[in-house]
Design goal:
The chain is mostly helical and 126 residues long. Helices cover 45% and strands 7% of the residues. It comes from Gossypium anomalum.
């Protein structure tokens, strides 16, 4: 049975309360002396590598070899089919806080889940 939006919102509120209490009780997670500042200006150069050779090699392999590769390296081979969305990367980088390793919007910190990264990057098999 799917949860209602009210149930999901209540769970989110519980997690937020726990997070705020933990930070209040234990202090900040930054290393002593580290200051979290979002840069005022960011330059991002995005380049899509030519992956034709890798795609050709992957397509030549049979399912057994692909299975062995996937067992050893996980689903990394599927990244060769992902196109880089330059506008998305530039928009995301503006809000990335490297000190906290999360996105910061005003006073709100957000960290995408694996599923959200998969959706942003258009990866179907996560």
């Amino acid at each position: 049975m799917e949860e209602s939006i009210t149930q999901i919102t209540e769970k989110n509120a519980v997690v937020r309360d726990w997070s705020l209490k933990t930070q209040r009780d234990n202090g900040d997670s930054l290393v002593e002396g580290c200051v979290a500042n979002l840069p005022e200006q960011i330059t991002v150069n995005v380049r899509q590598n030519n992956l034709e050779d890798l795609v050709r090699i992957w397509n030549q392999w049979d399912s057994d070899i692909k299975g062995i590769f996937t067992e050893r390296y996980g689903d990394i081979a599927h990244l060769i089919t992902i196109r880089v969305d330059e506008q998305l990367i530039q928009a995301m980088v503006r809000f990335w806080d490297p000190a906290y390793q999360c996105f910061t919007f005003n006073q709100e910190d957000m960290t995408p889940t694996i599923e959200e990264y998969a959706a942003l990057l258009r990866i179907n098999n996560v």
